[in-house]
Amino acid sequence: MPQLNDLSRSLVVLEQDATLIAVIEMGQSNWLVAGIVPGVERSPLKKLAVDESALLKLLNRWREEAEKAGHRIERIAIAFEAGRDGFWLARWLRARGIEAHVIHASSVAVSREHRRAKTDRLDTELLKRAFLGWLRGERDHCRMVAIPTLAQEDAKRPKRERVVGEQSRIVNRMKAALARLGIRGFNPKLKKAVERLDGLRTPEGEPIPPNTLAELKHDMERRRLVRSQIREIEGTRLERLEQAPGDGPHVMVRLLARVIGVGVETADMLVQEVLSRNLRDRRAVARYGGLTGSPDESGKKRREKGLARSGNARVRRGMIQLAWRFLMFQKDSALAHWFYARTKNAPQTRKTMIVALARKLLIALWRLAREGAIPEGIVLRPAL
Q1: Are strands 30-36 and 99-103 parallel, antiparallel or unpaired?
Q2: 208 φ/ψ angles, rounded to the nearest 5 degrees
Q3: Is pLDDT above 70 for 1?
Q4: Where do the domains of the chain lie?
Q5: What is the pLDDT of residue 384?
Q6: Is 122 helix (H, G, I), strand (E, B) or coil?
Q7: Measured between alpha carbons, how far is 132 from 125 in angstroms, rounded to an integer?
Q8: Pair type for strands 45-49 and 75-81
Q9: What single-letter DSSP state applies at residue 272?
Q10: pLDDT beyond 70 at 355
Q11: Which of 4, 39, 78, 349 could lock 71 by a disulfide, CB 3.0 to 4.6 Å apart?
Q12: pLDDT digit string (tens) for 296-329?
């Protein structure tokens, strides 16, 4: 029995004589639309401005051409690659009765020639071939991306806006500017760092040059602004958790935050990015988290090329950091014992095994959030 979210193939029987098929090669300034119209021998290709209304008119015109050729169109299926434009067009088309799909770009097979020809027209031909095979039910011909609702997309924004990396970049830039002058040991993150700048001296006994001093003060002001924005984002998140504790994702966040070593920020990231998705099984969870390997096997050659980069980079980074923190706060858990048993006699493998621990931990948290199954030996905080 096919799984509920099996996006590797279509589960609807394709009646090609009654189905209008179209693909879009989306650009910033225009769209190139290619179609397969029943009863029409030519392969229609039309360049449009970025206008959803013009796209709808084009599809209706192709439908009329098919009906003039004696084919009654009962289904319109359209697809385009996931990219900068997101999922708004797919939601807009579905609201108007058109079956819209978003193709995972890396799942479309392309020529491996070193200097292959690549144009928008050729790309639409590849998309048509891949989409047609998917509609016929051929497994893994290409893969589709789950289309989130507007609310689901919006729920991810606080985590992605929380610019902790920007704060670190500002601090590193300030330290580099001071090191260039030979000044070390000054902490630009202190509350009174701005007042202490004027009293700093280079090893030659000179004050900080005026342009560098102005740059440092500007960076400190930027860091203060970033910190205030981060505090505002975190405060808003806590308010929403308190206002709607019974909301589906909020229940998962509160449950994961009970695990000692997992904070609200990490729990919210995991729920919004991966755990709230209707993933098929534990393999799909690990694969989406980017915590699976990429073997290279051919003939007698057997080697591992490292982590696959096809998953969610935020989940991958967060889970590897959480795995190290997990070893500190959950030393008596079965997962921690598993890790220590495998690295006891080979400490040089700790960095490799931490990825395996992160994968097991992600699957355990997925089961905890979806089924309420508490992993063996994990200590929880009291319920609020």
Answers
A1: unpaired
A2: -65, 130
A3: no
A4: 16-147, 161-242, 248-371
A5: 62
A6: helix
A7: 10
A8: unpaired
A9: I
A10: yes
A11: 39
A12: 888 888 888 877 777 888 899 999 999 999 999 9
Residue holding tokens 């992993």? 375
Q: Is 99 helix (H, G, I), strand (E, B) or coil?
A: strand
What's the CA angle centered on 31, arms 9 and 82, to 5 degrees? 40
Amino acid identity, position 325: R
Distance CA 329, CA 259 (A): 9
If you classify domain 16-147 with CATH, what class do you get?
A: alpha beta
Contacts of residue 346, Cβ cutoff 8 Å, sequence gap at least 6: none
Average pLDDT, the chain: 89
Answer yes or no: is pLDDT of 68 > 60.
yes
**Phi, psi of 230, deg, nearest 5:** -65, -45
To 5 degrees, how large is the angle CA 199–CA 205–CA 209? 65
Q: How far, CA to CA in Å, does 72 sit from each of 46, 68, 79, 133?
A: 22, 9, 21, 22
Amino acid at 253: V
Q: What is the pLDDT of residue 155?
A: 85
Strand order in the sheet with 99-103: 45-49, 30-36, 19-26, 75-81, 99-103
Residue ranges of alpha helices (H) inside the chain are: 52-68, 88-94, 120-135, 150-155, 157-161, 164-180, 193-197, 210-243, 248-256, 264-270, 282-288, 313-329, 334-343, 350-371
Give the type of residue at 135.
L
pLDDT per residue over 118-170, tens digit each? 898 999 999 999 999 999 988 878 889 889 888 888 888 887 777 778 889 99
Nearest by Cα to 24 from 65, 85, 115? 85
What is the pLDDT, as a whole number, of residue 36?
A: 93
Place of tokens 């319109």: 76
Helix (H) or strand (E) holding 22: strand 19-26
The two structure tokens encoding residue 260: 């000692």
Contact between 260 and 278 under an 8 Å Cβ cutoff? The reply is no
In the three-class reduction of DSSP (H, G, I as helix; E, B as strand; rest coil), residue 244 is classed as coil
Q: pTM to 2 decimals?
A: 0.80
| Contact assessment for residue 38 and residue 77, using Cβ atoms and an 8 Å cutoff | no
Q: How far apart are CA 350 and CA 73, in angstroms?
A: 59
Residue 3 banded pLDDT, cuts 50, 70, 90:
very low
